[in-house]
Amino acid sequence: MHIADGIYYIGVNDHELDLFEGQYIVPNGMAYNSYVLVDEKIAVMDSVEANFGDEWLAKLEEVLDGRTPDYLIVQHMEPDHSANITTFAERYPEATIVGSVGAFNMMQNYFGTKFEGRNMIIKEGSTLSLGSKELSFIAAPNVHWPEVMFTYDATDKVLFSADAFGKFGALDVDEDWDCEARRYYFGIVGKFGAPVQKALAKVTKLDIQVICPLHGPILSKNLEHYLGQYQTWSAYDVETAGVVIAYSSVYGHTKEAVAYLEQQLKEKGCPRVVVTDLARDDQAEAVEDAFRHGHLVLATTTYCGGVFPAMEQFIHHLIDHAFQKRTVAFVENGTWMPTATKGMRALMEKCANITFTEHNATIKGSLNDDSRAQLDALAEELAAQF
Ligand code: FEO
Fold first, then answer.
1. Residue with the nearest Cα to atom 3 of ligand 1?
2. Smallest CA separation from ligand 1 atom 1, residue
3. 165, 215, 332, 359: which could join 377 in a potential S-S bond, CB 3.0 to 4.6 Å?
4. 335 touches 329 (CB < 8 A)
5. Which atom of ligand 1 lies at the shortest distance from residue 188's CA?
6. CATH tag for 2-234 (out of 2.40.50.140, 3.60.15.10, 1.10.287.70, 3.40.30.10)
7. How many Å lie between the centroid of ligand 1 and the Cα of residue 162?
8. Rounded Cα gap, residues 386 and 384, in angstroms
9. CA of 81 to the centre of ligand 1 (A)
């Protein structure tokens, strides 16, 4: 695939992967992107996941057309991109391996070598001329790992952005960018809002016409949208007005309470209500929804004197990913001694800048007039905020 003058795509699609990074379902597979810049010198940008070395090298050979590469630029050392560095280094012994100090430290850990005698250590502001193409490197620590460097090709106005602006999904499947990019963002780099903001501040000063990430499609149109989404997400700002109700239910009574609350919220004019069953739905999707919207209701049963496991796991996901700046309400169920709200609130207090609602609801077994009235009051309070 030709991207710009002398820039080619040689990435691969993975439809066999069960879980990305050992935890995220990828119904439409995953793409590991790799690029070749052909000039007086030739640079390859990042390798691909372990199972795809042969396919990647075959694509590279086709682009090389008999030439040999001069550089392998290593922007990110996570194994979905680094697993074939040694394969490349053995195939092309004259090529120089280019990366940050952190990247070479990781190569020592993964491969037992820093490629001494054939390495080029780059840092913020380092440059590399390929002939007509002038590359400069931008440190982007913790987007997603600390060693990450972005690469800017000033000649073609192309930003190679490592994991940033990537998404779940292989490139031979056509799907909406926002949904799977958002799930990817909050799952993979959600915790690192401040480093993403720093990287954004650097790249928004550049004249960029194409963004080439290491996952997902190459972005060449409407770049303001993607940059704007990253600005919103990394600032933990609300993207869409609405209420997410994340729940778990054992015998259906809590589910019934959630359905009642959903109906009340809609009747009272809530612009959008999203309901997710934490025991059955994809929790990464629930995390994405929680970060997307401004209001979150956590509804669950009391379990072993605490919080039902699916809910406890979900709240730990929120804490781990630096959930913040949101309004949170609780609905608990407990037949004889409801304590779930106490447990959920204690966990949610670990998140920064959370506003807890005045009204919450307690159900003792099944819904009755008293618990319906509590849910009415909660719905009233939430709906009044839109
Ligand atoms: Fe796509 Fe952080 O690796």
1. 78
2. 163
3. 359
4. no
5. 2
6. 3.60.15.10
7. 8
8. 6
9. 7
As beta bridge partners, residue 45 has 35, 73
Q: Which two tokens stand for residue 365?
A: 């077994």
CA of 5 to the centre of ligand 1 (A): 27
> What is the Å distance from ligand 1's center to 233 Cα?
18
The number of residues in the chain equals 386
Task: Return the residue matching tokens 């799930």.
Answer: 183
**Residue 25, Cβ density class (10 Å: 0-12 exposed, 13-18 middle, ≥19 buried):** middle
Instruction: Evaluate if pTM is beyond 0.85.
Output: yes
Residue 78 Cα: closest atom of ligand 1? 3
Residue 176 CB contacts under 8 Å (≥ 6 apart), including other chains: none
**Among 1.10.1670.10, 3.30.565.10, 2.40.128.110, 3.40.50.360, what is the CATH number of 242-380?**
3.40.50.360
